Amino acid sequence: MSGGAVQEVNAQEFDRVVSTSTVPVVADFWAPWCGPCRMVGPVLEKLASDHGDKVSVVKVNVDENQELAARYGVMSIPTVILFDGGTLKTQLIGARGQKDYEKEFGLA
Fold it and tell me: 25 and which of 12, 14, 83, 107 could share a cystine (Cβ 3.0–4.6 Å)?
């Protein structure tokens, strides 16, 4: 999956996407009731649009995927995690701007 689209995934889809992606995967752990999460969503959509050839972006609803969130130690949302080659590389907690994500994920 690449090309600039953000895909919402469940736990089974997440494992498949992260393990088979040919580019790093940015995973947004969020919930609909979370205000800061609603601010991060458009930022990551723009990141996917600007860098879709270098990174894939997926969204994981923590209310619907509690075991997946627990597997990666997500205790506060939004949490945005970069996976490369199926391995967790960087984990950021809290809302950030696009430039911060680009810097942290090596896209700047």
Answer: 83
